[in-house]
Amino acid sequence: MSAPATATQAKPEVITFTEAFSRALHDAMEMDPSVIMLGEDIADEEGGGIFKVTKGLSTKFGTERVKTTPISEQAIVGAAIGASLAGMRPVAEIMLMNFITVPMDQIVNHAAKLRFMSGGQTHVPITIRTRTGAGAGTGGQHSDMLEAWFAHVAGMKVVVPSTPADAYGLLLGCIFDDDPCLFIEDQLTRTQTGPVPVKGEIIPLGKAHVAREGKDVTVVGYGRPIRDAMVLADKLAGEGISVEVVDLRTVSPMDTGTVLKSVAKTGRAVVIHEAPRSFGCGAEIAARIQEELFDQLKAPVLRVASRDVTVPFSRVLEAEYLYKASGIEAAIRRTLEKRTQK
Amino acid sequence: MSAPATATQAKPEVITFTEAFSRALHDAMEMDPSVIMLGEDIADEEGGGIFKVTKGLSTKFGTERVKTTPISEQAIVGAAIGASLAGMRPVAEIMLMNFITVPMDQIVNHAAKLRFMSGGQTHVPITIRTRTGAGAGTGGQHSDMLEAWFAHVAGMKVVVPSTPADAYGLLLGCIFDDDPCLFIEDQLTRTQTGPVPVKGEIIPLGKAHVAREGKDVTVVGYGRPIRDAMVLADKLAGEGISVEVVDLRTVSPMDTGTVLKSVAKTGRAVVIHEAPRSFGCGAEIAARIQEELFDQLKAPVLRVASRDVTVPFSRVLEAEYLYKASGIEAAIRRTLEKRTQK
Amino acid sequence: MSANPSFTPATLLAIWRKARQINLIDEKFRGLLRSGRLAAVYYSPRGQEILAAAMGVHLQPTDYLVTTYRGIHDQLAKGIPLKPLFAEYYAKATGACKGKGGPMHITHPETGVMVTTGIVGSGLPIATGLGWASQLKKDGRVTLVTFGDGASNIGAFHEALNMAALWKLPVIFLCQNNLYGESSKYAKTTSVDNIGERAASYRMAGVTVDGNDAEAMWRAAGEAVARARAGEGPTLIEAVTFRFMGHYFGDPGAYIPKEEYEAHLARDPMPATRAAVLASGAATEAELDAYDAEVSAQIEEALQFAADSPFPDVGEIDIDVYGAAA
Amino acid sequence: MSANPSFTPATLLAIWRKARQINLIDEKFRGLLRSGRLAAVYYSPRGQEILAAAMGVHLQPTDYLVTTYRGIHDQLAKGIPLKPLFAEYYAKATGACKGKGGPMHITHPETGVMVTTGIVGSGLPIATGLGWASQLKKDGRVTLVTFGDGASNIGAFHEALNMAALWKLPVIFLCQNNLYGESSKYAKTTSVDNIGERAASYRMAGVTVDGNDAEAMWRAAGEAVARARAGEGPTLIEAVTFRFMGHYFGDPGAYIPKEEYEAHLARDPMPATRAAVLASGAATEAELDAYDAEVSAQIEEALQFAADSPFPDVGEIDIDVYGAAA
Ligand SMILES: Cc1ncc(C[n+]2csc(CCOP(=O)(O)OP(=O)(O)O)c2C)c(N)n1
Ligand SMILES: Cc1ncc(C[n+]2csc(CCOP(=O)(O)OP(=O)(O)O)c2C)c(N)n1
Ligand SMILES: [Mg+2]
Ligand SMILES: [Mg+2]
């Protein structure tokens, strides 16, 4: 290479989501000895996790702090809860989100409620990392986005990052947050890249992020479709359509203020998520916007999401199941058609 | 008694919810030998269920068809699924809804999906009866309304009755429906009464019921708060406010058509449910209404629901947690204040 | 573990005192419930006092307890003070949980009462985690988790025991086999003669003892505590006992055959243990009566405190949902 | 149960034929995956052919099977035809599940393949229900549910075995212990030496056999089937084996020590069973080769069918979500 030495020694400018998850875990363990981890196959003897996110951690921090568990999701989450009650900050991995159906009692009846039910005497600073997302051809039991369930449970925090840097900062945010957090990693975009985060920089939970400013329409959501929205916003800017993109980052508790501020400005909103449309988180976002901004809205709040069916195996059907970027674009245009009606 | 013989022999004019549940189970077992039941303590040797809903059934239909199970909710639902695949119509009792967190995998990954994943070769005609509801002072782990989770899962049907007669007809509807149904019984109103249903009369799932016609505002919801809405509608009629009450009966798949037809007429909607407000089913109802009827709406769609907290033990707090009839009334009035704004 | 430690009259007396406190409180509560002066879900531990006390005398305040809705005996044996406990039953702001948790969710970390759960079997995985934390911190604490016979059939039991055994955690799994789960007889729901045998599925130390026998229970508990403190792993103790008051307060208990009930009554551990204390010479009748009076006075004082305390402010509803924002 | 039935050369050959069919299909699929001509999640059963076949020869088409993502050997041993199976792997409209389920969710009720699940342990409760239905209907069917060693640590295992034992259901719980769950070694996750021992927790018949030994496996399977058909209840069979191709197709398997791998290779049941068939005189080398050719031709034909079949119509997305409205 002909570039000067400093340049070749410079850090790569981008990292993948997987690297971001890994670094956050690594840095958290380095920052605080009470951070411990457990999950199936996560130690290096088992290859550092089926998705390699935890690779190297057990070697560096010891197999006492990074424990491979049996296939026992109830015990995994329960053990995390118990350890957290004794002052630790456990990070539990539930390999794929469909398996989170197994420890629901531990999460919902215990992790989410112990602070309240104990009158604040105890709390449960655990992070549950899980992974999911349709588009990889893994079918009905390995693709579901179930974040709406947890958003509906008081006491839980639900976080879905849309860039590697956010993934890093938000995962640290979860780990050092004093409440139980569900952190959802997207299976499909895991090798996509983005700018490198600043080491140790925590993104506090509960704040939405205006990922792009605009004035004609607000696109609000979280996770993978935010990436589509950013691309679309660029494209539509060429046509003179100015799209504001609000990335919730923390799905629940939701930063309603930031959403409302944006929609109050643009008068139009398109809500996006990957999960199936009906009874999904988008319904809540839409409901809140129309409740608060009824008189300012120039068009109905539209939702773009996946279909209300089981995730199909065949790619032709899976593609039909998934929300589409073209659907987001169509919805944006539809809200703009309404421009003159009111 | 001095009344003539025919009158004394006439059936009582009202029955309780509990009687309605019991009769539906009884009549279903009588109508179809493939109807079988399982759950904790449900046989007569164990007293016929902790809430006595199954009392008498094992004696009449045999303990082979009415089986008391171990405390094993995963096995209860799994066994129901398996038996249904072999042609039975099992009715599984999950004693209280918070315990449904335990068999979530069986319900969501299996019962709801097997028809789709098998390409229609198999289906899962099970009914899961469960019971819940705040207001009885049973605290954080015995009161939750979690119907929104299941409404978000394609393949599941979710049913919540608001009168004993509906309870009877809808429970029969669930049992004889060919899909997995979740039937939610309200703990608090179980001794309340209503008109007697017609024996054997099935209320088909998927149809909302206009429980009261009106023209100024539509109140839409399901379950316990519908009873409050009916009382309120009477009261407000005295003031010249005409309230239409739409009882969804089947929460999901939702009969959007009936809801939209009503709101198209009234131009105003108040959505009600007992579950906590955020990310609850009311959000979906509100989102759909504003999507489809944006130009007809005279006021934002308002929601009345319980608070976004764990159900507290102390009655003073529990009352504060629960949605209030006065809150429904206030919401109705608020939508009417909007009368002139658009 | 020390081989065969001697069971002294002083130990027997200590067990009696804990058990009797439980017993007097339980009687009091049932009276209050009957008369309507207390309105709360209540799961009487009547019959299970001795086993809880015999376990409790081995524990330090710093040790952890995870128990269930039927947990007042465990909580008292662990040393929870009466005032916050009673005030919680009374749904008051001065309750251990400020009236927000209630009887099924008693928490009192100062005395190690970490979790009381209303979900059958769910305490076992949590206890596993408390034990894991102690193992990591090398703090020498023991975690006791108690549960019923019915709970031994739920999946969480299996997962927790396997994990605790694999990781050699300092956890004691105390199954209080009172022969019924709600109204279901043991044999109707449980496919093994003794739950203690299930320890073999995990190569875990397991034992079945007569939970009504103070000495046998004390020995089994002592061995388990010593094993845990020595870092030698968990123990499953099945303490066979009986619950005399049915599942919940008000349970008519029609599902229990009369002869069966009477046979158990004849083995009621409370009168038997009182007689044993007297026979051992550890205390005189008068001393025991004086103790009863003393405890009764404490109970009255705590009840007065609970009765006099205010209900929580409605503003409490929004507190303790989440911690202070980061 | 008949005492010690004789293991005839004909039986051995029948087992071989099923196993060899599995083996040839597995080899073919791995080739297709490697070359990119097939794109699907795939969990090779390489190493576990004999045990599945030795079980399969005892079953009728009307018996039920519940299996897992690693279930192609079980499905084939149960008699699933190749065309709908392959077409499902190919995500085609002619697949068993119209391309909607995929390899992890193969269903084929005509041959009793009722459920294939991707959730560890979740098939066991469902199998219990299939068995319950057979008991109610007195249809004489047996339900076989297969799962891995790792699955024996999940709660559903415990709940299902307890219920099946209590109710004496005609269910066979076949644990295929291939010594790894994903990349975790057996001993890292399982606290008991032999999973077969866990049957004792349910007073269930339980046995640990060498799953690579056709005769031993055939005997254990036969006893379990006979027990189930006689209404004498369920059996837990642990068949110890090994999986040679790692967890999923493409798994580098770096977590398996080389010596360990080679020791297992030396005990590969396929060459050993082939040799035994020849030694038994049940077939000649030429006959076995002819069988291979015959199966290979069937495979090619079925692959061609799958390749030529259309993908599902996008309209399929809305079908099979719910049944026809009542
Ligand atoms: C997961 C779950 N299922 C069912 C219940 C309802 N329930 C509460 S107590 C109980 C019986 C428990 O029996 P056992 O474990 O023997 O404890 P005991 O009450 O006898 O002390 C049941 C079924 C519950 N609380 N949680
Ligand atoms: C409940 C659940 N947890 C985790 C997984 C991820 N997973 C898939 S296969 C597997 C290993 C299973 O091991 P074993 O039961 O031994 O079966 P094998 O793959 O060896 O046949 C794991 C952990 C899952 N599918 N379901
Ligand atoms: Mg019990
Ligand atoms: Mg395995």
UniProtKB/TrEMBL annotation, chains A, B:
Cofactor(s) named in the record: thiamine diphosphate
Keyword Ribonucleoprotein assigned: no
InterPro entries in UniProt: THDP-binding, Transketo_C/PFOR_II, Transketolase-like_Pyr-bd, Transketolase_C
Boundaries of every Transketolase-like pyrimidine-binding domain copy: 15-191
An annotated Gene Ontology molecular function: oxidoreductase activity
Record keywords, A-Z: Oxidoreductase, Thiamine pyrophosphate
Domain of life: Bacteria
Keyword Oxidoreductase: yes
Entry-linked NCBIfam families: PRK09212.1
PANTHER family hit by this protein: PYRUVATE DEHYDROGENASE E1 COMPONENT BETA SUBUNIT (PTHR43257), PYRUVATE DEHYDROGENASE E1 COMPONENT SUBUNIT BETA (PTHR43257:SF2)
Function, as annotated: The branched-chain alpha-keto dehydrogenase complex catalyzes the overall conversion of alpha-keto acids to acyl-CoA and CO(2). It contains multiple copies of three enzymatic components: branched-chain alpha-keto acid decarboxylase (E1), lipoamide acyltransferase (E2) and lipoamide dehydrogenase (E3).
Protein name from the UniProt record: 2-oxoisovalerate dehydrogenase subunit beta
Organism the protein comes from: Solimonas fluminis
From TrEMBL, chains C, D:
Record domain Dehydrogenase E1 component: where: 34-313
Listed GO MF terms: pyruvate dehydrogenase (acetyl-transferring) activity
Superkingdom of origin organism: Bacteria
Required co-factors: thiamine diphosphate
Keyword Oxidoreductase carried by entry: yes
GO BP term, pick one: pyruvate decarboxylation to acetyl-CoA
Keyword entries, A-Z: Oxidoreductase, Pyruvate, Thiamine pyrophosphate
Protein name: Pyruvate dehydrogenase
Lineage of source species: Bacteria, Pseudomonadati, Pseudomonadota, Gammaproteobacteria, Nevskiales
